[in-house]
Backbone:
């Protein structure tokens, strides 16, 4: 029934002009669809069988992308009501909560999707590390990925000043003060971020512009580059396979239908190289189906979270009294725990070293060992080092989240200290 | 024309290249510099750092918190002094409790003279210059720092 309707629509002049190829039924049409459709051409017409297996990537990168798209969608909607002025911002939040139809759910979706995106980008990075997906020729794409991770954190950071509540105000006060500790340019940088000496109107409008246009556009362009490089660097990382022999290549094994992929032969590491025809499957319909399924699942999880849990909104920003304890969102609490020891070492030196190490990683660890294999035994040293850093980050985050009470004093979560009465 | 001369860049091409690259880089650099400078505001709409408070007699004995400046004003008989309430660590407002200042954000503790006792704060809380205006009111200048033991006696 639906298929008939679709065919009728495609047979009209307009329908035919929009969709060049109908629902593919033969292999030839599957290849044509992948080449001539804008959305479908983001992936090759044929992919390795491994790509269809969930355990190859756990879908982490794709989920991150979907979360980004959800954030763009909900974010644009929120922009219709939000005014980035200190007199209005908090009232707009209250309007979204109580007055605007579906306002609360959209804001919740935006908040939870943002939290999830941080989580999934980190998980995606771990996946890329533990399957050695950063080894040549994918070094640069790993660097693009690290930049995207930093952009994700930047988007979160600029985003949470906007509600102009207590968390917003004090998180930005603390965050920009950390920037002030950077050697030489620190104070100038802080002034530039805030557009003044204190967190106020000029800081709000600056963070707004960064949050709604500068960083998202940068992220979108880098995501496009990231996806493009995945293809150009040879598809998903996979273990080296025995190359087909010359005899195999020149006899019946030679794939007849490979002409569609000729433009991919521009580089030596294309998906077509080293794959035996029997290892390939068409992207349509199996891969496409899995991708849409993952999109549905991501959307469903975000929606359920948004319907049952409200995004927190604290009291309106009070530039005089910070809440006690004044905590950033969970993903910055590891950093906050570090700056509680020393702002310069914990807030500037350690993060700078970590980012440098992440960027340098694929250029230092270049031997093609264990590519495409989870926790390959050949990479024991690298895996141990990375896991230690990861564990340290997780432990610091847990301490900062659950084990810190008023005045940042140590407490146990099952016996919380009472908040200190403010004078 | 011998081979050596043939391999050299002709003067005209060299000069053209120089001119082209210099102007391109200059245009790029100048645009970037202008855009960067554009982002630095020339006028700030922020509270004045010099603040005229009430008359000395209007303040009670002991500490008074002045929220708009984030300053603690201390009175001891006829002597006045003013301490910053902004933590030198990352800018949170400190609380006055138990004979010292406590920062709620990262747990820095200062004693009554503003000196760091514990925590991550890199420097003590500064004390600000107090003067008396002609009409007999206290003037706090948060851009002028003084020593902890300097009192304004009225």
Residues:
């Amino acid at each position: 029934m639906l298929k008939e309707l679709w065919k009728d629509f495609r047979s009209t002049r307009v329908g035919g002009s929009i969709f060049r190829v109908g629902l593919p039924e033969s292999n030839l049409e599957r290849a044509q669809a992948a080449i001539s459709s804008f959305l479908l051409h983001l992936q090759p017409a044929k992919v390795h069988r491994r790509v269809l297996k969930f355990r190859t990537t756990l879908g982490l990168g794709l989920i991150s992308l979907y979360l980004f798209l959800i954030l763009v969608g909900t974010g644009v909607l929120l922009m219709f009501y939000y005014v980035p002025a200190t007199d209005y911002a908090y009232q707009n939040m209250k309007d979204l909560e109580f007055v605007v139809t579906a306002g609360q759910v959209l804001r919740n979706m935006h908040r939870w999707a943002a939290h999830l995106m941080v989580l999934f980008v980190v998980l995606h990075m771990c996946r890329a590390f533990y399957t050695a997906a950063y080894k040549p020729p994918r070094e640069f794409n790993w660097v693009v990925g690290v930049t995207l991770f930093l952009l994700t954190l930047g988007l979160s950071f600029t985003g949470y000043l906007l509600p102009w509540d207590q968390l917003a105000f004090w998180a930005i006060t603390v965050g920009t003060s950390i920037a002030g500790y950077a050697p030489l340019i620190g104070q100038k940088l802080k002034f530039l971020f805030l557009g003044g000496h204190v967190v106020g109107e000029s800081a709000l409008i600056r963070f707004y512009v960064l949050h709604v246009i500068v960083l998202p556009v940068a992220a979108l362009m880098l995501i496009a580059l990231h996806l493009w490089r995945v293809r150009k660097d040879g598809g998903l990382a996979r273990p080296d396979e025995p190359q087909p022999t010359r005899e195999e290549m020149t006899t019946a094994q030679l794939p007849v239908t490979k002409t569609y992929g000729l433009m991919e032969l521009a580089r030596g590491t294309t998906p077509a190289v080293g794959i035996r025809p029997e290892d390939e499957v068409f992207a349509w319909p199996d891969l496409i189906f899995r991708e849409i399924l993952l999109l549905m699942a991501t959307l469903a999880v975000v929606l359920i979270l948004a319907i049952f849990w409200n995004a927190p909104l604290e009291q309106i920003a009070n530039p005089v009294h910070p809440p006690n304890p004044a905590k950033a969102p969970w993903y910055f609490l590891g950093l906050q725990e570090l700056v509680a020891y020393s702002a310069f070492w914990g807030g500037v030196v350690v993060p700078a070293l970590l980012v440098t190490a992440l960027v340098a990683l694929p250029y230092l660890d270049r031997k093609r060992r264990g590519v495409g294999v989870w926790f390959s035994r050949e990479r024991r040293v690298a895996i141990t080092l990375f896991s230690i850093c990861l564990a340290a980050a997780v432990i610091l985050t847990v301490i900062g989240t659950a084990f810190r009470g008023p005045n940042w004093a140590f407490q146990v979560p099952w016996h919380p200290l009472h908040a200190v009465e403010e004078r | 024309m011998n081979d050596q001369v043939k391999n050299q860049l002709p003067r005209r091409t060299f000069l053209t290249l120089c001119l082209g690259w210099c102007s391109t880089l200059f245009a790029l650099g100048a645009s970037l510099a202008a855009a960067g400078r554009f982002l630095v505001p020339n006028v700030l709409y922020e509270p004045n750092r010099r603040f005229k408070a009430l008359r000395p007699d209007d303040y009670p004995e002991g500490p008074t918190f002045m929220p708009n400046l984030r300053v603690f004003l201390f009175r001891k008989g006829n002597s006045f002094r003013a301490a910053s309430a902004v933590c030198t660590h990352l800018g949170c407002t400190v609380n006055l409790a138990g004979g010292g200042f406590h920062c709620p954000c990262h747990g820095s503790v200062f004693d009554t003279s503003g000196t760091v006792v514990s925590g991550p704060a890199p420097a003590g809380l500064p004390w600000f210059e107090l003067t008396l205006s002609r009409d007999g009111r206290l003037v706090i200048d948060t851009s002028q720092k003084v020593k902890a033991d300097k009192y304004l006696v009225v």
Observations:
- Strands of chain A lie at 46-48, 280-282.
- Residues 54-235+291-321 of chain A form a domain with the Cytochrome Bc1 Complex; Chain C fold (CATH 1.20.810.10).
- DSSP finds 17 helices and two strands in chain A.
- The longest strand of chain A covers residues 46-48.
